[in-house]
Amino acid sequence: MSNWFRRRATKLIRVGNISIGGGSPIVIQSMTNTDTHDLQSTLEQIKRLQEVGCEIVRISLPDIECAKLVRRIKESVTVPIVGDVHFDHRIAIEAIKNGVDKIRINPGNIGSEAKIREIVTVANEYGVPIRVGANSGSLPKDLTSLPRAQALAEAALREVRTLEKFGFENIVVSVKSSDVLETIEANRYIAKYIDYPLHVGVTEAGTLYNSLIKSSMAVGVLILEGLVDTLRISISGDPVNEVIAAKKLLTFLGMRKGVDVIACPTCARSVFDVEKVALEVEKILSNVEEDIKISVLGCIVNGIGEGKNADLGIAGTNDGVVLFYKGEIVGTYKLEEGLGKLKELTRTIVQEKLKNPAT
User: Fold this and answer.
1) Which domain holds residue 85?
2) Where in this chain does the record put each IspG C-terminal domain (predicted)?
3) How far is CA 217 from the centre of its chain?
4) Are 246 and 335 found together in one domain?
5) Which of 21, 166, 276, 351 fits a 20 to 30 Å CA distance from 315?
């Protein structure tokens, strides 16, 4: 894996069976968008997130009833669960007692320091970390005269110092903006003053295209600067897309093993639907955690060369497709038959790589 840049040194924080910071690999997070009261739907979504590679899942806890459901959720899944709590400190305490692995709170909206102390006392007793931070939609009024990135960082620092005042240091910190440059600058700023792990992302990044572009720029820059310990790529809609996007970002930066599907941009020479075939290949390999390069080309103009440089390649011909396996032509097929053969060869490659990781 890639070691060509230096990670920032931070404390090691344990969230269930997952380590954040302290030199641990960057952790992928997401959040359910189901009504937590609907236990079945929530469990189904958590399991879907885990299946595609989510390592920590956050759930919303709007009331005590949801906090009590944490125990049943924890009995049904193996991925660590973070409880998202606002306003009522009793919800956070109840969630901790019911087995939540981490709490996300904003001390500023919890109320008095006495209530924060109560949360800290129980969190210490159960060994549960707390995530604090700020985003661009909830800045304290007395900080609004500062540049926005600095205000975000200072707001988060204020929350950190509140917890530290009660002797609590089992902390993860997040500063997020919906603006790319503000997100970058806020994380750079706060990293100078604390050694707690940073949870990084662009908040309210929007729908798929906006989010992918914003998140790739902001999170990508901060990863390369060594400031990211855990991340969420926020996308409006199905949170499974967040996990897939995060895995791809880390894979393309050489920080995870995974699949790289190379597909041509298409032109009038394409003889099959390149996008459809490429998406099908990505779907087949969504759970693969091995370095595999697959080439999907709409015609043979570039297909021969590209296919030979990939583990597996498929290129269009006038009569169907030609398939490449480790640089050698396997044969020509009709499209559907070729896709079937592609799936078969993919399984073979995965098994070979599992048996011999050096290949």
Assistant:
1) 13-252
2) 261-345
3) 15
4) no
5) 351
Tokens matching residue 235 = 């996308």
Residue 190 within any structural domain of the chain: yes
Instruction: Say whether 306 counts as a known binding-site residue.
Output: yes
Phi, psi of 152 (to 5 degrees): -60, -50
The answer to whether residues 192 and 328 belong to one domain is: no
Is the pTM of the predicted complex or chain greater than 0.85?
yes
Q: Is 54 annotated as a binding residue?
A: no
CB contact set of 302 (below 8 Å; sequence gap of 6+) = 264, 315
Q: What is the pLDDT of residues 291-341, one digit of tens each?
A: 889 999 887 766 566 666 788 888 888 888 888 888 788 899 998 898 888
CA dist., res. 180 & res. 219, Å (int): 9
Query: Among the three residues 202, 219, 252, which one is the final residue of a domain in this structure?
Result: 252
Closest listed residue to residue 245, CA positions, set 105, 52, 8, 55: 52
Count of domains observed in the chain: 2
3 domain-assigned: no
Number of H helices, E strands in the chain: 12, 15
Q: If you write DSSP's letter for every residue of 251-308 in order, what string do you get?
A: HHTTSS--EEEEE----TT--S-HHHHHHHHHHHTTT--S-EEEEEESSSTTHHHHHH
Q: How far apart are CA 93 and CA 100, in angstroms?
A: 10
Final residue of a structural domain among 252, 286, 302: 252
The CATH number of residue 48's host domain is: 3.20.20.20
Other Cβ atoms within 10 Å of 172 Cβ, number: 25
Could you tell me if residue 8 is inside a domain?
A: no
**Does the annotation flag 66 for ligand binding?**
no
Tell me the backbone φ, ψ of residue 233, rounded to 5 degrees: -100, 105
Backbone angles phi, psi at 7, to 5 degrees: -80, 145
Q: Tens digits of per-residue pLDDT, 212-271?
A: 999 999 999 999 999 999 999 999 999 999 999 999 999 999 898 888 988 888 887 787
